[in-house]
Amino acid sequence: MIELGKASDTESRAAKAPARHDAKYNCSQSVHCTYADLLGISKEEAYITASAMGSGMTAFSTCGAVTAMALAAGFATCDGKLDQSETKKTTTMLTRAMIAEFLEKNGSLLCRELKGIDTGTVMSSCDKCIEDASLIIEKHILGITSGKPTVEK
């Protein structure tokens, strides 16, 4: 667990996260690996954890960047007590707040809709979703508000 809003590194990394996607990381890996060290895990662990989350969990379902936010919330807030977790509600509420903000910014949580697979109209590019999810993690988990969006639709 980390202390919410108390990042040891206060510089935004959000603008750098899409570069991982360019390097063939999936959307979830692009976000999750960007913050691995701040969440107390190695980049390799983050890469493995998010490996099946790309392309909407490989089915154009929930956006990989969104699943990375949920993974980050879990790593940031879960106490790891298997028998009697005292953090489940905190993790759930944090995840819901981040998802709501992503939905407000992008209009959908579904990879299929965001990429315009059925309509031919892209709502948000993968790079924009990655950057938005990164900014949301920074705001809600790390307490960093200095990041500014750089990716347009």
Give an account of the 3D structure.
The protein has eight helices and no strands. By secondary structure, the chain is mainly α. The N and C termini lie far apart (33 Å).
Distance between the termini: 33 Å
Please tell me what the overall shape is. Answer: globular
Assess the beta-strand content as a share of residues: under 5%
The overall average pLDDT, rounded, is 89
SSE sequence, one letter per element: HHHHHHHH
Would you report the number of β strands? 0
Tell me roughly what share of residues is in helical segments. Answer: 40-55%
Q: Biggest β-sheet: count, sense, barrel?
A: none
From the helix content, strand content and strand pairing, which structural class follows? mainly alpha
Helices and strands in order, then pairings?
Elements: H1 17-22, H2 27-34, H3 43-49, H4 54-60, H5 64-77, H6 88-106, H7 111-114, H8 126-142
Defining traits:
54% helix, 153 residues, 8 helices
Quick recap of the structure?
The chain has 153 residues and is mostly helical.
